[in-house]
Design goal:
The protein has 7 helices and 5 strands; from the N terminus they run H-H-H-H-E-E-E-H-E-H-E-H. It is of the alpha+beta class. The protein has 2 domains: 8-61; 64-154, no CATH class. The chain has a 5-stranded antiparallel β-sheet with strand order 4-3-2-1-5, with helices on both faces. The mean pLDDT is 94.
Length: 155
Amino acid sequence: MKYARLTKEQFEELHQEFINFLASQTITASEWEELKKNKPEVAELELDVFSDLIWEGVLNQAKYLEHISPQSIHLFALNEDQMHLIGIKVKSDVDLSTTEGFNWLRENLMDDRVEFVQAHKAYSEERNLDKFTLIQQGANITKGELYNYMYKLIN
């Protein structure tokens, strides 16, 4: 398995897609029930393959990631050949992961306690795995509004 198995809730959301996936493997509903009962390791493998297919599609579509922690924000643009990072670090008791802290940042962007950094990083040979690792570390896929706002502000 390349990524991570989808959660029970994610499988429930993707129920029809999973049925279509099984059909593409020429596995009927009764055969699936029999697999789960008599060959659970094969059923597990099918779940893993389906999970990887879904993750691959999601990661191919992802254009921006953001990770917000109490003292910093990391905004990633997932460009074709490399990632671009905008990092924001706050040297204050403010907690950026709260609404109040985020509002403080908006009102104090030019304060000496707010530090901006930018960096570029080339992908490894496993581009989607690089993206997935950031998600596993707490980043969320976004539409890039915050990234684009900050990019215009500091460039």
